[in-house]
Design a protein that fits this description.
Blueprint (H helix, E strand, L loop, with lengths): L1 H15 L38 E6 L4 E6 L4 E6 L4 E7 L4 E6 L5 E6 L4 E6 L4 E5 L1
Antiparallel strand pairs: 1-2, 2-3, 3-4, 5-6, 6-7, 7-8
């Protein structure tokens, strides 16, 4: 139950741009990253996006998309934040547990816990181009 709640908070954070945490929908911070369209519906509802294969890793890019690691599928799924839809996937190593972007969001680096490797993702091509 707690794992499901925590995952919901992470996806909620990605979809509405709060960072990585849960907040009361009426406590949306006002800053340069928060636009009126980023706020939840006035009744407090938030769109839920189902994603299978035990999502674990999540990283939001300032370019308007996020990668979510799926533990059981050994892949990253791309989330378009403007349309709030899942896009293509990238095959990576076993148990993708964390994702980071370079400063321009042209490359993503995913740590693969079980494979003991780091995958290098070409974001434009949405493919893994190398492993460390």
């Amino acid at each position: 139950m707690r794992r499901t709640h925590a995952l919901g908070c992470f996806i909620l954070a990605a979809v509405i741009g709060w960072g990585l945490g849960c907040h009361n929908p009426s406590d949306v911070p006002t800053n340069a990253m928060t636009q009126p369209s980023d706020r939840p519906h006035p009744d407090g509802t938030v769109k839920r996006l189902p994603l299978s294969d035990r999502p674990l890793a999540l990283k939001v890019s300032p370019k308007g998309f996020a990668y979510i690691g799926q533990t059981d599928a050994s892949q990253l799924t791309r989330l378009d934040l403007s349309t709030q839809t899942f896009g293509s996937t990238v095959a990576v190593g076993l148990i993708p547990s964390d994702v980071v972007f370079n400063s321009t969001s042209t490359r993503a680096y995913v740590s693969n816990q079980r494979s003991q490797s780091v995958g290098i993702i070409d974001v434009a091509a949405n493919t893994q181009i190398d492993t460390i």
